[in-house]
Design brief:
Blueprint lengths: L1 H17 L28 E7 L2 E9 L4 E9 L6 E10 L2 E10 L2 E12 L2 E6 L2 E4 L2 E4 L6 E10 L6
Parallel strand pairs: 6-9
Antiparallel strand pairs: 1-2, 1-10, 2-3, 3-4, 4-5, 5-6, 6-7, 7-10, 8-9
Length: 161
């Protein structure tokens, strides 16, 4: 009889341990952190640069946004050559401005890639071999560009148009 009582007690204990507990717990309160203040980068406004020598003039003005995208104007008025002027759209990649220069010369619209190295507050124009594809001239190898200090555009006051 002791065995039957012991077995019955064990069965009751097993059933009692299987019974689900229903306790109510309050939900955990999550307090949101205040949003981090975004870093606001103010546009620097137009930046203007020019090179002048013996009656020849190169002028460049542009804006750089927070994504290092460049938008501006570029004009070449070289003695003995046709004047051309147009838009400049590109990117700052480190200390180098690489952009598409869309310009008009003698009534013909053209696109060519230009490069300027920013050094000591000035921009030095880069030169190199170019290839033409789909009516656009681009540098063959940007790592082999040469920057000639004689074509250094220095910072100037922007013209009011």
């Amino acid at each position: 009889m002791k065995k039957v009582t012991t077995i019955a007690a064990l069965i009751l204990i097993v059933f009692a341990s299987c019974k689900k507990e229903t306790t109510t717990t309050e939900p955990v309160q999550i307090t949101p952190s205040p949003p981090k203040e975004a870093e606001i980068v103010e546009p620097a406004g137009d930046q203007c640069y020019a090179w002048r020598s013996n009656g020849s003039v190169i002028e460049m003005s542009f804006n750089v946004n927070s994504h290092q995208e460049v938008n501006g104007k570029l004009s070449y008025n070289i003695v003995g050559k046709d004047k051309n002027e147009g838009s400049l759209i590109g990117n700052m990649k480190g200390d180098t401005l690489i952009a598409d220069y869309t310009f008009s010369s003698e009534g013909v619209s053209s696109v060519r890639e230009v490069a300027f190295l920013q050094k000591d507050g000035a921009f030095i124009e880069g030169y190199g071999d170019v290839v033409e594809a789909n009516g656009k001239f681009t540098f063959k190898d940007k790592t082999k560009l040469k920057y000639d200090a004689k074509n250094t555009l220095t910072k100037v006051d922007c013209k009011v148009e």
